[in-house]
Design brief:
Number of strands: 0
Order of helices and strands: HHHHHH
Structural class: mainly alpha
Length: 139
């Protein structure tokens, strides 16, 4: 029996999620008003940021297993903005403080400056129903 190789390593998943976030932000920036689709996109953005945050912890744990404590800490520091951004956006969504959304987006755009979006590749399935799922109480 051969080895099982997981091709979805945390770095690859993180890059895919960064791309999804960049596309969501592009869609959101083109919206003129907050509608149901905008709420779904914002909720999906929170979920993507949370997933990136979990991936950072997984990557750092791998470095720590190998006793690369400094490298693990550098990784966490480089990506510490993700948890903060997710918390801010979640706060905006839960309080329905939509007037704060443009300011938040302006602060977040530079984090995705290196992600080039020349063509939209994500479909609306990424965000459909995300706001309702986001509002459900978590166990």
């Amino acid at each position: 029996m051969g080895r099982v190789i997981n091709t979805d390593n945390p770095g690859k998943v993180r890059n895919q999620l960064m791309r999804s976030c960049a596309e969501l932000m592009r869609h959101l920036s083109q919206k003129q008003a907050i509608d149901d689709e905008s709420k779904d996109m914002a909720a999906s953005l929170v979920m993507c940021l949370r997933e990136i945050e979990r991936g950072i912890d997984d990557s750092a744990a791998v470095w720590e297993k190998r006793d690369y404590w400094i490298k693990a800490e550098q990784l966490r520091q480089r990506w510490d903005w993700v948890a903060f951004a997710a918390d801010q956006l979640e706060n905006i969504l839960r309080k329905e403080a939509w007037e704060k959304m443009p300011e938040f987006m302006v602060k977040l755009f530079p984090r995705f400056a290196d992600v080039k979006v020349t063509r939209i590749t994500r479909s609306s399935e990424l965000w459909e129903g995300a706001y309702a799922q986001f509002l459900k109480p978590q166990p």
